[in-house]
């Protein structure tokens, strides 16, 4: 952390989460002379959604999340979204491998571990869905090595806690892929910020909240900042601003006043986990086991029983149980949602409220759940679970995107979206899924959107290809390259490869 201010940097990064840190690393690797200032409200990096226990730590490669593979009306399975997410994760693996090889991250096991990804279903209809999903996925090279079983003994071998004390009469099935990962995005973010801190002309300022954003006559952005330690107001101007403020991004986008941000709103969803630190239990589970979401529930509330490795300690996580809070950040204000309402987004906000009654009902139902109900849900995945082994853990906030729509007034979206000024001098990242896993993909999208000139007319492109060897080539189409990238990154990151 630095008290020294460069008041006219080339780049300002708002927020010290995984997204700003990843973009910062890309920019510094591509152009070491760039001056970058990073501002963060809280007292350190990765204290909001990127902190390990605020998210589930899944290296989302869409292996096990059934919401990415919907059934079509003819019963066949559409795996196109899963494939997109699958190869986005390959970009992150390549960036992280580059940093390990360079010595910027000393030990990959300080942030990533091989943990098999499983999907698990109960009931004949779900078993039939999972079998069709497996057939569609296993036929594609991206899912090479995926296994399927409806044999209870085999599933027991894969995940004993899930099968112990489960009745014999119910059909069950599971898929497994051993190349899955658990990622401590908090530790990773800190590595990235440390790496940036070790470079020249980079400073991170904690306890500094960005309070205003406006355009100067010369095109530079004027950024107003409050030093929360002493209340002093500071001013910085910059050529480029990245609003990587997580749940805080919408309010800052609105402050920027860019027309491209008009009409956008946010819908906050809070979350709770159950957490188990009993080593006798944890040593018997080594997988991330994803189930099917309940009807009416948002896609990110799919229940899962996960191995977590955080700070060298093994734990189990189950959830999330969703809920509603009007805060946009875990450390935010209850007024966030109300402050985000403005004339331009009232119609989208009201339209989404009108069209998503099942979601509202689901969230209210989750809020009213007693601890007994919550535990009963855990026992659907781990029938022999004992209450004394589990404690509550508050997860991060997710702000889902509400965007204007000509036909319906407004749409609720569960993905992420980059919203940039027409001249690409400012860009905000809204939304939170698939999230941290795709930070490198998002970083590359920002480079292509906002630094297209540098990418085409300078040494940036060969450097980017050094960082991401598959850059510009589709891993969905190039089977050999896909296999090579996965083998190489697995070797560097010490992950499973098949
Ligand atoms: C319950 C849950 C489960 C999840 N599970 C997964 C998962 O399994 N895998 C996965 O890949 N992703 C997951 N995600 C998503 C992932 O956590 C996020 O996509 C990712 O952490 C977002 O990173 P970020 O840098 O954009 O935001 P953050 O990490 O939230 O960082 C934003 C930072 O900006 C700061 N900030 C905000 N406003 C200001 C301001 N005005 N001035 C200065 N600083 C400001 C905040 O304090 C914060 O530190 C999950 C998220 C949640 C909530």
Query: Which kinds of small molecule does this entry bind, naming each only once?
Result: flavin-adenine dinucleotide
Count of DSSP H/I helices: 16
Distance between the termini: 42 Å
Number of strands: 21
Beta-strand proportion? 15-25%
Oligomer: single chain
- Give the helix level as a range of percent: 25-40%
Query: What radius of gyration results from the CA coordinates?
Result: 22 Å
Computed structural class: alpha+beta
Biggest beta sheet summary = 10 strands, mixed
Low-confidence stretches: none
* Outline: globular
Mean pLDDT, rounded to whole units? 94
Written overview of the protein:
This protein has 498 residues and is of the alpha+beta class. Helices cover 33% and strands 24% of the residues. Strands 4, 5, 6, 13, 14, 15, 16, 17, 18 and 19 form a 10-stranded mixed sheet that branches. Strand 18 and strand 19 form a beta hairpin. It is globular, with a radius of gyration of 22 Å. The model has no long low-confidence stretch (mean pLDDT 94). Bound molecules: flavin-adenine dinucleotide. The site of flavin-adenine dinucleotide (FAD) has 42 residues, from helix 1 and strand 9.
Could you list some keywords that capture this structure?
498 residues, 10-stranded mixed sheet, 6-stranded mixed sheet, 24% strand, globular
Helix/strand layout:
Elements lengths: L10 E4 L3 H13 L5 E4 L40 H23 L9 E3 L2 E6 L1 H15 L8 E3 L2 H7 L1 H4 L8 E6 L3 E3 L1 H13 L4 E4 L2 E8 L5 E7 L5 E6 L1 E4 L5 H8 L8 E12 L2 H4 L5 E3 L13 E7 L2 E11 L12 H4 L6 H10 L1 H11 L3 H11 L8 E5 L3 E8 L3 E5 L2 E5 L5 E6 L7 H12 L1 H6 L2 H8 L11 H15 L5
Parallel strand pairs: 1-2, 1-12, 2-8, 4-14, 12-21
Antiparallel strand pairs: 3-7, 4-6, 5-6, 9-10, 10-11, 13-16, 13-17, 13-18, 14-15, 15-16, 18-19, 20-21
Helix pairs in contact: 1-6, 1-13, 2-16
Bound molecules: flavin-adenine dinucleotide.
């Amino acid at each position: 952390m630095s008290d020294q201010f460069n008041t006219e940097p080339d780049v300002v990064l708002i927020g010290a989460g995984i997204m700003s840190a990843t973009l910062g690393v890309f920019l510094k690797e591509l152009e070491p002379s760039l001056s970058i200032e990073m501002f963060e409200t809280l007292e350190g990096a990765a204290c909001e959604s990127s902190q390990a226990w605020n998210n589930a730590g899944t290296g989302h490669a869409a292996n096990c999340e059934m919401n990415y593979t919907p059934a079509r009306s003819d019963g066949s399975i559409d795996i196109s979204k899963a494939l997109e997410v699958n190869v986005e994760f390959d970009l992150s693996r390549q960036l992280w491998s580059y940093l390990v090889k360079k010595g910027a991250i000393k030990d990959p096991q300080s942030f990533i571990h091989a943990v098999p990804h499983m999907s698990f279903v109960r009931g004949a209809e779900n078993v039939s869905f999972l079998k069709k999903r497996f057939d569609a996925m296993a036929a594609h090279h991206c899912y090479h090595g995926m296994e399927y079983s409806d044999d209870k003994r085999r599933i027991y071998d894969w995940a004993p806690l899930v099968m112990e004390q489960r009745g014999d009469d119910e059909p069950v099935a599971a898929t497994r892929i051993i190349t899955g990962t658990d990622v401590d995005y908090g530790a990773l973010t800190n590595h990235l910020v440390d790496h940036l801190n070790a470079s020249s002309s980079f400073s991170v300022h904690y306890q500094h909240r960005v309070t205003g954003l406006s355009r100067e006559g010369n095109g530079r952005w004027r950024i107003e900042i409050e030093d929360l330690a002493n209340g002093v107001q500071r001013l910085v101007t910059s050529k480029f601003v990245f609003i990587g403020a997580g749940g805080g991004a919408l309010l800052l986008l609105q402050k920027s006043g860019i027309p491209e941000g008009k009409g956008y709103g946010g819908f906050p969803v809070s979350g709770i986990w159950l957490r188990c630190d009993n080593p006798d239990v944890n040593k018997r589970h080594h997988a991330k086991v994803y189930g099917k979401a309940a009807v009416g529930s948002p896609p990110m509330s799919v229940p899962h029983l996960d191995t977590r490795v955080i700070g060298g300690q093994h734990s189990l996580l189950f959830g999330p149980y969703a809920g509603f809070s009007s805060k946009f950040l875990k450390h935010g204000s209850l007024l966030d949602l109300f402050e985000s309402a403005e004339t331009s987004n009232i119609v989208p906000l009201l339209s989404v409220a009108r069209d998503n009654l099942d979601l509202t009902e689901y969230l209210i139902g989750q809020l009213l759940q007693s601890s007994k109900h919550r535990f009963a849900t855990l026992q659907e995945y781990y029938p022999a679970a004992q209450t004394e082994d589990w404690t509550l853990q508050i997860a991060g906030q997710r702000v889902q995107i509400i965007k204007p729509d000509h036909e319906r007034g407004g749409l609720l979206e569960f993905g992420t979206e980059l919203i940039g000024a027409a001249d690409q001098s400012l860009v905000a990242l809204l939304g939170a899924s698939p999230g941290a896993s795709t930070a490198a993909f998002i970083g590359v999208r920002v480079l292509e959107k906002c630094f297209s000139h540098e990418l085409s007319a300078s040494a940036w492109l060969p450097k980017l290809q050094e960082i991401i060897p598959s850059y510009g080539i589709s891993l969905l189409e190039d089977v050999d390259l896909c296999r090579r990238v996965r083998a190489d990154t697995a070797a560097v990151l010490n992950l499973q490869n098949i």
